[in-house]
């Protein structure tokens, strides 16, 4: 009984093969030829970059006492590095004391001026004495303003001893180490935001008129394909490189520096008749497509291919929009053979 079941199973497996080889109905999958808008394209190299990529430098001179490690994630405003601030704090204390002294002298001169003006009403104070006191009062007011300004400058420098993140990101490079002395403008760390990405690509300048902001272009990398909108187009070349730059917004999370291929149109979009690429049968006598008629018989027609976009390609020949074309099972199909539509 067991052997009988095995024989029946083997026969069931061999029947479709025998039908395909000797004229039986062959299982196929179908699609339809359709009219669509398409344009010839070319692929150019592009690179994933971050729109927020900054080298942060020291804004005051001093010794580094703290630097964030590479790989540290920070938010906007977080402290990435600190510079020793002891001399600046001492200078701030000194200026605060000078302000107190200047305020005391100003109060004294204002009181003196009031007293002399009262005495002048009874001719007990000279006019020159009043003028001198008023002049000294004005000088003291100016001195107080200068000292306050100097203190604000020192407080600003104290704030700059802390290097903070201007945007959220990751520390990807530590140029200076804790303990080193840095000058104004010395690079300390590099900060990159991996969440704000775009693709930068350059294409021949003659094709810039076919790309506009808002267009969606294809990106290919590592056998994957994405669609990204064009953010901006910079159509300015030079004598050495006749190319223009285009930047595309990238929503996917890709590593900064990833190389991609950007599909750029090289002509205006036009209306074409297209079929899936899987419908093409390449043989020694040329390129053909199998069309399934209403009676489910296959008919082989010769076609000429044109431009392509993704999984679709332009064809010309005795084929019309709406014709059912075979996309699976057409490798061993013969003209006039009956087919069994699957799926």
Low-confidence stretches: 7-23
Helix-strand pattern: HEEEEEEEHHEEEEEEEEEEEEEEEEE
Count, helices = 3
Provide the CATH top-level class of the largest domain.
Answer: Mainly Beta
Which secondary-structure class do the elements indicate? alpha+beta
Beta-strand content estimate: 35-45%
Q: Measure the end-to-end span.
A: 35 Å
CATH architectural name of the largest domain: Beta Barrel
Q: How does the overall form come out from the CA principal axes?
A: rod-shaped
Radius of gyration: 40 Å
Q: What's the β-strand tally?
A: 24
Question: Would you tell me the overall average pLDDT?
Answer: 87
CATH fold descriptor of the largest domain: conserved putative lor/sdh protein from methanococcus maripaludis s2 fold
Helix percent band:
25-40%
Number of domains: 4
Biggest sheet details: 6 strands, antiparallel, barrel
Structural commentary:
Residues 92-119 form a coiled coil. This is Efflux RND transporter periplasmic adaptor subunit. Keywords: Coiled coil, Signal. Residues 1-20 form the signal peptide. The protein is an alpha+beta fold and 343 residues long. The chain folds into four domains: 24-39 and 270-341, conserved putative lor/sdh protein from methanococcus maripaludis s2 fold (Beta Barrel), CATH 2.40.420; 41-51 and 196-265, Efflux pump adaptor protein, beta barrel domain (Elongation Factor Tu (Ef-tu), domain 3), CATH 2.40.30; 55-83 and 162-192, OB fold (Dihydrolipoamide Acetyltransferase, E2P); 86-160. The protein is built from three helices and 24 strands. It has helices at residues 2-21, 86-121, 127-160, and strands at 26-32, 34-38, 41-50, 53-57, 62-67, 73-74, 79-83, 162-164, 169-174, 181-182, 187-192, 197-204, 216-221, 224-234, 243-250, 259-265, 270-276, 280-283, 286-292, 298-302, 304-309, 312-316, 324-328, 339-341. The strands form six sheets. It has a six-stranded antiparallel β-barrel. A four-stranded antiparallel β-sheet has the order 2-17-22-21, with no helix packed on it. Strands 4-11-9-6 form a four-stranded antiparallel β-sheet, with no helix packed on it. The chain is rod-shaped, with a radius of gyration of 40 Å. The relative contact order is 0.21.
């Amino acid at each position: 009984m067991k052997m009988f079941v095995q024989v029946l199973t083997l026969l069931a497996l061999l029947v479709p093969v025998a039908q395909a080889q000797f004229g039986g109905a062959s299982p196929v999958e179908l699609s339809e030829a359709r009219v669509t808008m398409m344009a010839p394209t070319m692929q150019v190299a592009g690179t994933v970059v971050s729109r927020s990529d900054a080298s942060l430098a020291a804004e005051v001179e001093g010794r580094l006492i703290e630097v964030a490690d590479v790989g540290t994630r920070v938010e906007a405003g977080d402290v990435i590095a600190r510079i020793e601030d002891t001399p600046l704090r001492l200078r701030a204390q000194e200026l605060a004391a000078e302000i107190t002294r200047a305020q005391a002298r100003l109060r004294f001169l204002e009181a003196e001026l009031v007293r002399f003006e009262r005495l002048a009403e009874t001719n007990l104070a000279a006019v020159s004495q009043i003028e001198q006191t008023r002049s000294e009062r004005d000088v003291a007011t100016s001195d107080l303003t200068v000292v306050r300004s100097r203190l604000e400058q020192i407080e600003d420098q104290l704030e700059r001893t802390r290097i903070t993140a201007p945007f959220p990101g990751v520390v990807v490079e530590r140029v200076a180490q804790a303990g080193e002395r840095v000058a104004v403008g010395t690079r300390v760390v590099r900060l990159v935001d991996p969440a704000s990405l775009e693709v930068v690509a350059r294409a021949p300048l003659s094709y810039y008129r076919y790309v506009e902001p808002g267009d969606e272009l294809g990106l290919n990398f590592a056998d994957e394909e994405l669609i990204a909108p064009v953010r901006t187009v910079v159509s300015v070349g030079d004598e050495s490189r006749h190319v223009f730059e285009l930047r595309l917004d990238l929503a996917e999370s890709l590593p900064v520096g990833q190389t991609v291929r950007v599909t750029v149109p090289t002509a205006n979009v036009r209306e074409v008749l297209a079929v899936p690429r899987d419908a093409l049968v390449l043989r020694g006598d040329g390129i053909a497509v199998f069309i399934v008629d209403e009676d489910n018989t296959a008919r082989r027609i010769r076609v000429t291919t044109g431009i392509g976009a993704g999984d679709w390609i332009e064809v010309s020949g005795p084929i019309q929009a709406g014709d059912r074309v075979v996309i699976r099972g057409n490798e061993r199909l013969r003209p006039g053979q009956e087919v069994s539509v699957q799926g």
